[in-house]
Amino acid sequence: xxxxxxxxxxxxxxxxxxxxxxxxxxxxxxxxxxxxxxxxxxxxxxxxxxxxxxxxxxxxxxxxxxxxxxxxxxxxxxxxxxxxxxxxxxxxxxxxxxxxxxxxxxxxxxxxxxxxxxxxxxxxxxxxxxxxxxxxxxxxxxxxxxxxxxxxxxxxxxxxxxxxxxxxxxxxxxxxxx
Length: 178
Description:
The protein has six helices and two strands. By secondary structure, it is mostly helical.
């Protein structure tokens, strides 16, 4: 390109994430041109924050080892062991965290950690739930009223004709978003 070598910056890290789709890159260029802004400034608004690209950190849950705990089996320790199966079922089979198990058993975190140290419980990685539900593209769209249908048809025609600025005017709750 025609960029001076002194303006180039080295790549410091490579993220294992999907590339920005071509359509979004074209949109970035169009917005940059329309707002007379550097494409990098617009792209910065499009890309997620740095931490969002990191893989989610797994939480640690607890499962029973089946072994008797080292030391005395106090009423609090017994309550934790009896509560573990119920809490695991309530969480959809996912092992509960120390805090969740302690709260459900009505004991302190220290009692639960004592069972870990005593060999009765063992920490395991909990499955990381997805950040968002997968979109359902087959959902039906909203049912338009006559005025909305006319406005939607006009917008579809305007998009088909190329770029144009359109303004939807109406009071709050009149259905502009649909």
